[in-house]
Automatic annotation (TrEMBL):
One of its GO terms (molecular function) is sequence-specific DNA binding. Keywords: ATP-binding, DNA-binding, Nucleotide-binding, Transcription, Transcription regulation. InterPro entries: AAA+_ATPase, AAA_lid_NorR, Homeodomain-like_sf, HTH_Fis, P-loop_NTPase, Sigma_54_int, Sigma_54_int_dom_ATP-bd_1, Sigma_54_int_dom_ATP-bd_2. GO terms for biological process: regulation of DNA-templated transcription. PANTHER family: SIGMA L-DEPENDENT TRANSCRIPTIONAL REGULATOR YQIR-RELATED (PTHR32071:SF121), TRANSCRIPTIONAL REGULATORY PROTEIN (PTHR32071). Residues 15-244 form the Sigma-54 factor interaction domain. This is Sigma-54-dependent Fis family transcriptional regulator. It holds the Pfam family AAA_lid_14.
Amino acid sequence: MTRAEIQQVKQRFGIIGNTEALSRAIDVAIQVAPTDLSVLITGESGVGKESFPQIIHQYSRRKHGQYIAVNCGAIPEGTIDSELFGHEKGAFTGAIGERKGYFGEADGGTIFLDEVGELPMPTQARLLRVLESGEFLKVGSSRVQKTDVRIVAATNVNLVQAISEGRFREDLYYRLNTVPIQIPPLRERGEDVLLLFRKFAADFAEKYRMPAIQLTEDAKKELLAYSWPGNVRQLKNITEQISIIETNREINAAILQTYLPTQNMQRLPALMGTRESKGFESEREILYSVLFDMRQEVAELKKMVHNMMAERAGQVSQVGTVVTTPVVAAHQPSVPAIIHAVQPAQPAVRRDDDDIQDTEEYVEEPPLSLDEVEKEMIRKALERHHGKRKSAAKDLNISERTLYRKIKEYDLD
């Protein structure tokens, strides 16, 4: 496609930016649209992946059919098969009527499966059958249903890694990934950041009936230097905050920095040996690794105190302190057991000096288990967000389905 044609597509679907990688992604979407090939859209959270399935649908022969977008990560595992494929009356408790399901509704159209990497394995097998033969079974039914639907999927999960970890089917990955489209992160889009900020500022000025905010030159440099971990979604959110809160409509770098709380964290060097995965399990491993190291340091400090007090008394301490530290494997998800310091009931050395006290026994409190700490983190996140599971899941960096399962597991309803 020509640049003029791509620019028309951008205007039609509200896509802002001139980066070559973005234009290439739009070009591929339009070229593949007339076919029935499955498309897998990949990119970080917040880059705007949801616009591309709409482009594919509108430029396809299915544009007059149904377009249904499904967030796979927001549907509880126990009901996702019913949502996608429908169910018969009485198929399970609460199934008071028949349900058609999204694949039945989208017959002749397009279905967009967002966060497809969150699908449970049994549902992945059902989806694979639809891709291979166009057939599916309703929950509670033995009658084969047919559907003619175009599937476009999107994910911010590394599916190759998920396959190696046994969380995603390899055959389904190749079926979905017939045509891959990669959406670039905002930090790689250069001057697009300024274009997006200007567009969002104008939109919020119109929405809230106030003058649009503008950036000084030093603020523009700050905006371009920031890494934008939340991508376009984060930029839009910050632009709205500034538009509402700041009375001065000219924003300098100092003001802008107050709205970028994670800026310093983004510039810290990466930890050596940490895994690339940013999932909840990985964060827990890092947390407990730090806690375990702290416990070791405390044990060493206690040992030093014992020795120093023994030296002051002019005697060799007879109190034996044994700390056994097991080797912690990098992949081990739970806190290893710690053999605590052993103290005799009575001090082994009697001191005659009145000014020197016997060494106090140190009794370490038993460490919290991994499940207890995880439960407490989830409970506090739910309290912070007043029971709103979507916000709590985002705060914990896990999907709503994972949070739903954890709430059931820990009886936090």
